Amino acid sequence: xxxxxxxxxxxxxxxxxxxxxxxxxxxxxxxxxxxxxxxxxxxxxxxxxxxxxxxxxxxxxxxxxxxxxxxxxxxxxxxxxxxxxxxxxxxxxxxxxxxxxxxxxxxxxxxxxxxxxxxxxxxxxxxxxxxxxxxxxxxxxxxxxxxxxxxxxxxxxxxxxxxxxxxxxxxxxxxxxxxxxxxxxxxxxxxxxxxxxxxxx
Length: 201
Fold this sequence. Notes:
Layout: H1 2-44, E1 52-57, E2 60-65, H2 69-75, H3 82-91, E3 96-99, H4 104-113, H5 119-134, H6 140-155, H7 162-179, H8 182-187, H9 190-194
Parallel strand pairs: 2-3
Antiparallel strand pairs: 1-2
Helix pairs in contact: 2-7, 4-5, 4-7, 5-7, 6-7
């Protein structure tokens, strides 16, 4: 009787732990499936429609709006030459990919980190990006005033070299495009009001 009770208890415990194991496996598999579906949806949707392009920045591949690709490359430290581009194509699968739509601030921080700017200017730009991101959802004139004031202050800063000013203004323009939707910018005429001004000396 004692052996029968003990055997029954072992079977009961074994079946419970197997159920727990099976459930945890199911949770893991379903979360992996959801993650794969999200990636597949993203890549099969916008990216394959050529709305997004890949840009290598340091140890990352950034998935960015196609119209920003050249501007981003222009502010990065090393612009890939033809030979380097072949190496990049071979090795890009081993690099982490970051999407500007899913993680805009990290994308912008990587662009800043991989620019030719000095560390104090990089820190200043990161502060600007965080502050600009915090203005999402605000009325247009508030966002526009913030961008204008920042860009004016950089244009008038006599301690900055011309190429530093150009890089800062380019990153400001990239940040605006990444943080705010294209529809918002078109609706509010952002392209003409903030990003078309030339660099002052």
